[in-house]
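tool_call: predict_structure(chain=1)
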Amino acid sequence: MKHENYLRTLHTKDRGWFWFGSTVVIQIVLISVSYLMMNISL
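tool_result:
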């Protein structure tokens, strides 16, 4: 029973890290794209 709970929390933590990483990557991409667009327009 204890082992099962450990695996479940580990899985949830992995999913959280996955969403966190995705959000960070998307933000970095958006920032770099807007930066490039500003440089091109200027």
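agent: Residues 2-41 form the longest helix (40 residues). Proceeding to next step.
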